[in-house]
Amino acid sequence: MTLPKNTIKKYLPLILLFGVSLFVVFYHFLSIPKRTTFDEIEFAKLAIQLGKQSYTPYSQLATGHATLYFYIILLSFKLFGISLFALRLPSLIFGLFNPLIFYNILKKVFNKKPSSIVYALTPLLLSLIFVTMRWYFNFARFGFEATFLLFLEFSSLFFMLHHIETKKWSPLVLSGVFAGLAYNSYQPGRIFILIPLTLLIHSFFVMKAKRITTLSYFLVPFFLLILPLSIYLNINKDTRFYQQFYPDNHEMALQEKGQFFVRNLSSTVGIFMIKGDVNGRHNYPNKPALNLILGFFFLFGLILALKQIKNKYNQFFLLWFLISLAPTLFTYPWENPNMLRTFTVLPSVVYFIGLSLQFISNIGMVKKYVPQKVLLIAIILLFSVSTVYELRTYFVHQKTVFEEAFEAERDLKSYLPMEQINEK
């Protein structure tokens, strides 16, 4: 039995994308990095402790965390036993599926009738660029929850775009569900609601809808899901958040807080192309987060987005860009630059790269003198060089940094209290 050509054409990009994702995320998964970090050990302790008590939306263990992701780690432990593999498996799984969801989001964003072969392949090209950025796949290879948060944000955004496209109410409910789950994840997820909500409100101006009813489909599931954590945080302080949130420091002068903000702004802007994160778990110390090729296309696309600010998707991704950077601007300067805390800026970075590709493929001079197939080959070759550079930086150079950045040398179980292991 042979598959129809349309079916092959539809699923071939997803198969290609999943194959590339599987390679960069799973290649030498347990040997790079080979050791574990004490943060991961604390995460394991937190997850196991959750199995001994009734449901709690927040735990003071491991410096304080919302617990949603750690219940997933607990499930992984129950299925596969307590091991480094089981601890890191959830991050890997979400790391594999994020590019597939992002590809479908980009298909909706770049949904105009293709004017060139480059334009038609933009969603696939951008998704491949996304998954081969070491800023992305590095965090899919150990047990932090960055890829889980991005999965929730992507899912919420996909269903919101699907609602706007189809006018159906069920995707709207699902968008609210995933936005609510994002609130229960890593701290930046608590302000993510502004992203799909902005899209929804914008849609009110271009289509007729019962606005109160439409908003309720989105907001009711969102508020129901954030209620337990919100009640907890209203009674108990989020220890982790307020330890890092310098505006809440009443012993600091306003002028000093202003100086901190300027320092954070400078280091955060510089993270892209000047000086990157110094943390060896996040980055090859001090190396810019974007290589020269990615950095050039990102910067040019950002300028295009600002220049064409009336475009709704330019507005949307600029807002997502700013919201993703906001948390790091209000943490103490010695915490920055930080590629983990700014992880959710990646979709906007990739979108701006896409604007650059579109601009190049559409300008008259290129159309006149360079055939589109030749341009496509040139773009593929250029970003292939970028991909090789990213993979080499990670698997050759950053690998050596991991020897010190991941401090714990012994087996994961040896760091856990015996009573926890026995009860498990």
TrEMBL record:
The chain crosses the membrane at residues 12-30, 68-97, 117-136, 142-162, 191-207, 214-235, 289-306, 313-334, 340-360, 372-389. The keyword Disulfide bond does not apply. Its main location: membrane. Residues 65-227 form the Glycosyltransferase RgtA/B/C/D-like domain. GO terms for cellular component: plasma membrane. The keyword Ubl conjugation does not apply. Pfam families: PMT_2 (PF13231). Keywords: Cell membrane, Glycosyltransferase, Membrane, Transferase, Transmembrane, Transmembrane helix. One of its GO terms (biological process) is lipopolysaccharide biosynthetic process. GO terms for molecular function: pentosyltransferase activity. It is a multi-pass membrane protein. Signal peptide: none annotated. It is found in: Cell membrane. This is Glycosyltransferase RgtA/B/C/D-like domain-containing protein. It comes from Candidatus Roizmanbacteria bacterium RIFOXYD1_FULL_38_12.
